[in-house]
Amino acid sequence: MRLILVLALLAAPLVAETKSDTITKSVPFQLGSWIDLSFTEGPVTLHRVRLAEVRGGITKSDLFRPGNTEHLRNVEIELEYSNSSSDDWEAHLDVTWKDSEGRVIDGYRDDESLDDKSSHDHTTVKLSTLRYGIDRATTFDISIRVTPD
Amino acid sequence: MGQAIARTAALATAMLSPWLIASAAAAATFDETVPFKVARWIDLELTEGPITIHRLRFAELRPGDTHYLQSFEIEIEYSNSGKKDWEMDVELEWLDRAGSPIDGYSTDEGLDDGSDRKLIEIRTSTLAYGLRKAEQLRITLALVPD
Prior knowledge:
The structure holds two protein chains of two kinds.
Chain A: H1 2-11, E1 15-19, E2 22-28, E3 35-41, E4 44-53, H2 60-64, E5 72-83, E6 89-98, E7 104-114, E8 118-130, H3 131-136, E9 139-148
Chain B: E1 20-21, E2 28-35, E3 42-48, E4 51-62, E5 69-80, E6 86-95, E7 101-111, E8 115-127, H1 128-133, E9 136-145
Antiparallel strand pairs in B: 1-2, 2-9, 3-4, 4-5, 5-8, 6-7, 6-9
């Protein structure tokens, strides 16, 4: 019985919370997997989000740490949204990944524009992080607040 | 410094000496893993010809810089009593308790002629999480005439 309960907890998102203009979710960390949000605030719907590995291309790390990218891994936060309004809105992103002891490894905190008259558009944020941290991440915490621009 | 020091098998001979000098015409090298500690100087005293590499350390620059990053400075103190510049290949890698590499930095640095205890300062940044997990520092230096 206890085992069934544990398995059920692992299969479901760890935490999912919605506060008026904010969607908060905590899920098992998995690179590349889409996380369903289905969150609507006014004319904006946040459909889903994911953290995926980026291969190739030049990143900020290549410029600031030339020749020193051996331990880095380039990842991309990808948010799919719709905005039926004729005005831009903003998504205030606060995402982190944590290790098995709940310690924050890395994350991203900034505002992203949600363009007007968009349907299932994607906004992406590329960043470099440590391969060491990605290998040890177990939890992905997401908090996105939506406001008019 | 009280923590266990992990070394690779190749470094076993280095336990008898604080540094290694490669044989024949190869560059003088230092290759050792020591406990990782920010702000503490690590004595090297690697000498080759007119060059002495005295010591090295990690120094914090702006603790808490940005949300998850930590800027820091690698400082290496050296002397070059010769009349010609030399060059030093630097490879640093910080490891966790189990010896897994977290992050590192490699660069070539010029060692100016006629220098007495001059400081090389290399500024970079890494994840604060990685620095918190770091317990060992692997240092590999190689000296060659410029």
